[in-house]
Amino acid sequence: MALFQCDFFSEKLGFSTGMSVILPQPSLAEVASRKEGTDYKYPVLYLLHGLSDDHTAWTRYTSIERYASSKGIAVVMPGVHRSFYADMEQGSRYWSFVSEELPLVARSFFPLSARREDNFVAGLSMGGYGAFKLGLHHPERFAAAASLSGALDVASRLQHPAFPYTDAGEFERLYGSVEKLKAGPSNLFNLLTSAAELPPEDQPRFYQCCGTEDHLYEDNLRFKAAMEESGLPLTYDEEPGMHEWGYWDRNIQRVLDWLPLSR
């Protein structure tokens, strides 16, 4: 595998940002066997970070590079700060960046497949929310989405006194108001019906896991129940565990095993 730290200018954000990218490294024999003039494109997992992390966190705290090596899959890890993958009410357009600009930029720099069946998204905590948001908003782009300890009930979670928002105005800068969040497209519960109305072959597969001692466990149970009621294809796993990297390191391996890789 090869690891790239890529710094680039984002037109959606209006400033320079970064992403970490893992690419399979073919052997010399594999390169020689490919027909001249053909471009090989790798399947890709967009892997999203949590609230207090950045685009380097997954490579620093897990063995994602080693795990992806046996799968022949590229991994793109963008940085979005504390944005909750939103076009902020008062701030930058992180949703537009991650949903529209990032895939185009990443494919322009690296040999990544644009085929739906080769595109997947996963994340932890805030990134688990972002992964399901991408899968539900864009089922035409992603074959599967996975949430590890996801903050899936954002409206309830952001009002919880134990949530680690140190600035009292941070929520308002993100969403404006609780009412606006609950009624809008950033509330994952509002997206389930339209996704469930798609033909089964057009619905992404979903994977959800959470530790039973995690402070987001009850949120995950609520969303699991809503997913099951919608009829969307969901694989759910739980086990003893807290909101920490040891749990995510174990479970990202399960996500990679679960992905419907077509080659």
In brief:
The protein is of the alpha/beta class and 263 residues long. The protein has helices spanning 28-33, 57-61, 64-69, 94-109, 126-137, 154-157, 170-175, 178-183, 192-196, 217-230, 245-258; strands at 2-10, 15-23, 44-48, 74-78, 119-124, 144-148, 205-211, 234-239.
Tag the structure with descriptive keywords:
263 residues; alpha/beta; Rossmann fold; eight-stranded mixed β-sheet; globular
What does this protein structure show overall?
36% of the residues lie in helices and 20% in strands. By secondary structure, the protein is of the alpha/beta class. It has a single domain, classed as Alpha/Beta hydrolase fold, catalytic domain (Rossmann fold), CATH 3.40.50.1820. β1 (2-10) and β2 form a beta hairpin. The protein is globular. The mean pLDDT is 92. Keywords: Hydrolase. This is S-formylglutathione hydrolase FrmB.
Low-confidence stretches: none
What is the fold named in CATH at topology level? Rossmann fold
Q: What's the number of extended β-strand segments?
A: 8
How many domains would you count in the coordinates?
A: 1
Tell me the series of helices and strands, N- to C-terminal: EEHEHHEHEHEHHHHEHEH
Please indicate the percent range of residues in DSSP E strands (runs of 2 or more). Answer: 15-25%
Which CATH architecture would you pick? 3-Layer(aba) Sandwich
| Helicity, as a percent range | 25-40%
Name the CATH superfamily classification.
Alpha/Beta hydrolase fold, catalytic domain
Question: Cα distance, first to last residue?
Answer: 17 Å
Overall geometric form: globular
Number of helices: 11
Strand order of the main beta sheet, please? Answer: 1-2-4-3-5-6-7-8
Keywords: Hydrolase
GO molecular function: acyltransferase activity, transferring groups other than amino-acyl groups; hydrolase activity
Protein name: S-formylglutathione hydrolase FrmB
